[in-house]
């Protein structure tokens, strides 16, 4: 049956990406959406859309029965699963086929085999693909350490924990199992040897039902946090450096893996490689990958288009596509890398990523989009491509640097710093990059909050002042006047987190002093510090004491001359926030009121929920002494566990929450009193 109308059982940027290919091919498109996604771009861009009542994945995008019913109601004859959610659910694939719809993906049998990391490794070992041996938890000894606890089902870094001591093992297994059950519905975990500084290299395969298997080059995805990819590229710098024999063996292993399970469609065979050129099978993702655009950019193929062809029974024709040039993708997340990569929630109020030659932007949001707790925090993928890797990296960094994304904290500045790091530019990267280069160090030379506060004050003053009479400047006064004062709050640096079972230790992690708990300026909240700006417009211009000369100031833009160099800052606003984008990056400030009601102040040393979520664990009791950075409360949000840590050393004096309690952002979780 020839496909005429495609329902995408997904959301966000991947739904939009698939719709794009369908439109180019003249196919009708159908979206599904939760109540939280009713106004999102993927819903508006589809020819038809069907509501899935509810907001949680379990009630919506994981309800295969509702999705199949939606396809029938909207007249779709095919289902594309995208990635995540039900994309690697063999039962859903069977149900789609049983409903008389075309499944745009591999067979349920292949999904089933490769969906189990335990069974897939056994099958690969039989086929001759190198694998890391699975370790029996009951037989583990200190000689086996370090090990990686992994969820058998799913991927995306969820349900994974690094264990470096036997004492950590029970908690790591329990935590990984809880996370795996929440994300994939399967708590099964296992252990394997952990390679501290390996290279994550993967092979994109495409296979048809006529026996043809293409290996469309390799990608390297070694820059990761929490075992989730941050920056991906094709081809792999490691493979380029070690030579053609490694590439030949990798691509051959990818084809062998696909053939061993009778694979059909697009898939990715993931390997862990070392500097000697040895590699081991990790898993096979039986779906389209998040990072598939880099392969499309260097091969010139449309992977979604090939998926449609294969699903229609067409053969892969012509020679296997070759790789030309280089492509790098950066994932723009709503998260705070300096605060243990904590996901952020909020409403996107500005979203502008400059496109141009050699730049591709796959985005799932627009101004007005709400980033909530139920779905992945990725906002967009920004891809640069061209003939030369160094030029591509520079172009991608410059594009991200000029981007304006307001309303939620993002990893934008970290991406720019990573792309400009000497190790990345030389290709000397591995999975230990962020343990050797902690985010706080990478962005240490970032924007100056004091300068950003001055810019915000001048822009706010221009906004309030409005237009002046012709011929008058803002410094015109009949009599001298005093300095004006404006006060802003900025997020303070997070306390350093001690190494635990979830992250690799960083031997070079800087030891930073932790500020004592409590607000230093009235109106600041826990985790913030206040900045007071004093300035005056005199007859000779701006007087601040900051050594800056005002060139021009409007509500949206401020130009200052500092040490003889003119620089420009752009300013955006939402609610009580001012976002300043400048030469060194972006700073979000909160305007503090001139007068603050003391009743609104949080207790000194208070920990508040950084996002809505569910309390899944508490790590201390009232009266216990705690250390700075010690995790006290764990929240489950976005299908992952997030530790909330003590801001300073002291005594736990209040713990108003309990396991199982739902909390909103800003809810008090605990109070630590200083010694």
Explained architecture:
The chain is built from 17 helices and 39 strands. The chain has 675 residues and is of the alpha+beta class.
Condensed summary:
The protein is an alpha+beta fold.
What descriptive keywords fit this protein?
8-stranded antiparallel beta sheet, 39 strands, 675 residues, alpha+beta, 31% strand, globular, 17 helices
**Which regions contain 5 or more consecutive residues with pLDDT less than 50?**
496-519
What would you report as the Rg, rounded to the nearest angstrom?
26 Å
Strand order of the largest sheet: 14-13-10-11-12-15-22-20
Proportion of residues in β-strands: 25-35%
Coarse shape: globular
Structural class: alpha+beta
- Count up the helices: 17
Terminal-residue CA separation: 73 Å
Number of strands: 39
On the 0 to 100 scale, the average pLDDT is 89
Helix amount: 10-25%
Largest sheet: 8 strands, antiparallel
């Amino acid at each position: 049956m020839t496909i005429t109308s495609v329902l995408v059982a997904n959301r966000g940027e991947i739904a939009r990406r698939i719709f794009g290919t369908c439109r180019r091919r003249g196919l009708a498109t159908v979206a599904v959406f939760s109540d939280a996604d009713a106004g999102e771009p993927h819903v508006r861009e589809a020819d038809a859309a069907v509501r899935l009542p509810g907001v949680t994945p379990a009630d919506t995008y994981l309800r295969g029965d509702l999705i199949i019913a939606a396809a029938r109601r909207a007249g779709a004859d095919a289902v594309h699963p995208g990635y995540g959610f039900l994309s690697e659910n063999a039962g859903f694939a069977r149900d789609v086929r049983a409903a008389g719809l075309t499944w745009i993906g591999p067979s349920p049998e292949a999904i089933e085999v490769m969906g189990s990391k335990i069974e897939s490794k056994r099958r690969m070992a039989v086929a001759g693909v190198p694998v890391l041996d699975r370790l029996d938890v009951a037989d583990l000894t200190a000689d086996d350490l370090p090990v990686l606890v992994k969820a058998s089902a799913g991927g995306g870094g969820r349900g994974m924990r690094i264990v470096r001591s036997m004492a950590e093992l029970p908690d790591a297994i329990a935590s990984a199992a809880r996370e795996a059950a929440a994300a994939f519905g399967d708590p099964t975990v296992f252990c394997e040897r952990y390679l501290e500084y390996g290279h994550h290299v993967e092979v994109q395969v495409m296979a048809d039902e006529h026996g043809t298997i293409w290996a469309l080059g390799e990608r390297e995805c070694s820059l990761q946090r929490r075992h989730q990819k941050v920056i991906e590229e094709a081809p792999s710098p490691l493979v380029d450096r070690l030579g053609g024999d490694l590439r030949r063996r990798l691509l051959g292993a990818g084809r062998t893996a696909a053939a061993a399970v009778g694979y059909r469609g697009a898939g990715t065979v993931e390997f862990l490689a070392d500097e000697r050129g040895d590699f081991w099978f990790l898993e096979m993702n039986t779906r389209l990958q998040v990072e598939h655009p880099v392969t499309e950019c260097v091969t010139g193929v449309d992977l979604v288009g090939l998926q449609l062809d294969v699903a229609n029974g067409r053969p892969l024709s012509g020679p296997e596509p070759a790789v030309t040039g280089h492509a790098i993708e950066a994932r723009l997340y709503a998260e705070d890398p300096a605060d243990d990569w904590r996901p952020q929630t909020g409403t996107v109020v500005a979203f502008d990523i400059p496109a141009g030659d050699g730049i591709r932007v796959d985005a799932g949001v627009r101004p007005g989009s709400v980033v909530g707790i139920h779905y992945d925090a990725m906002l967009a993928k920004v891809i640069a491509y061209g003939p030369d890797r160094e030029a591509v990296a520079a172009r991608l960094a410059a594009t991200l640097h000029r981007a304006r994304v307001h309303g939620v904290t993002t990893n934008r500045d970290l991406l720019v710093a990573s792309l400009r790091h000497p190790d990345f530019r030389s290709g000397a990267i591995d999975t230990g990059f962020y343990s050797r280069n902690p985010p706080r160090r990478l962005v240490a030379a970032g924007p100056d909050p004091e300068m950003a506060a001055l810019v915000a004050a001048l822009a706010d003053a221009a906004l309030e002042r409005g237009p002046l009479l012709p011929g008058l400047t803002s410094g015109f006064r009949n009599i001298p006047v005093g300095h004006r004062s404006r006060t802003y709050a900025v997020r303070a640096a997070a306390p350093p987190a001690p190494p635990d079972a979830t992250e690799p230790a960083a031997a070079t992690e800087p030891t930073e002093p932790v500020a004592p708990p409590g607000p230093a300026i009235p109106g600041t909240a826990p985790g913030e510090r206040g900045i007071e700006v004093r300035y005056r417009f005199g007859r000779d211009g701006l007087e601040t004491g900051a050594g800056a000369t005002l060139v021009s100031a409007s509500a949206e833009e401020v130009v200052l001359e500092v040490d003889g160099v003119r620089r420009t800052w752009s300013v955006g606003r939402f609610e009580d926030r001012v976002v300043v984008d400048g030469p060194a990056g972006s700073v979000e400030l909160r305007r503090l009121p001139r007068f603050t009601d003391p009743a609104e102040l949080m207790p000194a040393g208070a920990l508040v929920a950084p996002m809505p979520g569910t309390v899944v664990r508490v790590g201390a009791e009232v009266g216990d002494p705690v250390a700075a950075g010690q995790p006290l409360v764990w929240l489950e949000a976005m299908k992952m566990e997030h530790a909330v840590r003590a801001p300073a050393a002291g005594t736990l004096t209040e713990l108003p929450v309990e396991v199982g309690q739902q909390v909103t952002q800003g809810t008090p979780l605990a109070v630590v009193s200083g010694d």
